[in-house]
Amino acid sequence: MKTVKSMYLEVYLHAADRELEEHLPEIIIPDDLEVSYHIGDSGDMPEFVKDKNILVISDREDILLSVPEDRKGFTYLVYEGDCFEDIDPKLKKRLSDFWLRSADTEYKLFRLQNLLYRVDGECGRWMYRNLFNTTIDSMPDMMWLKDVDGFHYNVNRVYTEIVNKTKEQCEGAEHYYIWDIPKEEFEKGEFTCKDSDERVLSTGKMDVSYEPVKSAEGMKQFTTYKSPLFDPFGKIIGTVGIGHDVTDFGNMGIQFSMLIENIPFPMLICSVNWETIRANQHFVEFFGMDEEAIREFSYRDFKKEKMTPVSEAKVDADRHYRFQEFRIECDGKQRFFIIVEQEVRDTFGSISAYYCLFQDVTFQREYEKKILETANTDALTKLWNRRYFYDFLKNNENASMTLLYMDMDNFKVVNDRYGHVIGDEVLYKTARAIEEIYQGSVIARLGGDEFAVLIPKKIEKDVLKEMNLELENRVKGLFSEDGLNVSVSIGVVEWNGGKMDIDSFVHAADKRMYEAKKIHHGSNIIIK
Q1: Backbone Cα Rg of the chain
Q2: pLDDT digit string (tens) for 45-65?
Q3: What are the phi and psi torsion angles at 208 (to 5°)?
Q4: Cβ neighbours of residue 21 under 8 Å, at least 6 residues apart?
Q5: What distance, in Å, lies between the first and last C-alpha atoms of the chain?
Q6: CB 244 within 8 A of CB 260
Q7: Average pLDDT of the chain to the nearest whole number
Q8: CA-wise closest residue to 37 among 28, 45, 25
Q9: Contact between 146 and 238 (Cβ < 8 Å)
């Protein structure tokens, strides 16, 4: 599958240090960034791409100053020199970084790596801010974001049209100013949406309300959907709201139809008996149904047979809705939805229908999974890291398991003689061999050339010995043709369940591994 890149960067390397060029493949490129390198002699004057973000690294001031200040996109300039104080003041103001010409290549690679992550972050912030503003301005309903004190810090196009103010006038302003009502009247709280704001801030939950709002043009009626905004520590920092104007009750039926079709999520309207009355176009297109299929569609059967719950159902009795997260397979891909089932009540308080809203949270779940994998995965070998290994032991300390503690023999010699690139290749290939042989086990790189394998089940000693011998032979064979005298020593410890002293358990395996290293002839494996 092709990886979609959302940002592009052209890197121009025009400096005397040509060793840096040889190590560019070692640079880790952020996932969202596509990087192209342009290598030239420091004596050449490069021609810069006009329609992409650029990063220019040079030891010549005139090359960096030749980059137009008014060019579109992001521009990053790095100067390699002997003294920062001697740089042209015009260039100083534009520099993104300064490298000492005498610094070693490893240092420059480190600075370049950090700069790429900075570029990724700054371009990403611009991209997602632009996507967010474009998205909310495309919505057919009002949308706004407030801080906890009620000051607006973003509104969409429809909002500005309804209140007859610009975005700049709305941002940083309170409700009374935007809606042209006296401040004293606003502070009384009547017809100002203050109650629903306070409910969201106090409960930390989404609020659906039918609210009359007073404006300079008279009373308006809105259906509002408000949700809390949280910071990374779970503290509420504001609210986001969507308001659907239903002031013209004579056109309620038309507006209701428009609302259903313009909600950017799959949505169903069901009868009191849960028979399908209507589905919006997003639902029809997403689940690939025609009109006949919709008429025969059973929402409850569909949910039971096709959707797998991944959270407990939550019910809000006061606001008459129920929501739960589900997983479903669509076109061979796994998707996640939060389904909101909202009661529709008539003027007598009786249930007249239900609407079911499918909120796609696949991106959020995949992002959460990616963050967890990144935090628990060794970057080089793609195995679990030390943190995950110890967390797994802690969470399964009462289970029976077998621990294999592994260490590469002669690895330091390989690193010292052939360099870290070859050393990294040895570690990576060894990791793949371990994965193939100990399938179904928890495999981690603990650091350096040390690996651990946790087999979470009872295993016969003869079977385990055969697997270990296979690994030893595989590792020797992988590198023997290249003249690398690499092997692996393994220490084995079994645990039969019960309260575990994790440190002692690991130490015992480590000790047996070192005993294995002392065996110079025959097997490098100890099983007791």
Answers
A1: 31
A2: 788 888 889 999 999 999 999
A3: -115, 120
A4: 13, 39
A5: 46
A6: no
A7: 84
A8: 25
A9: yes
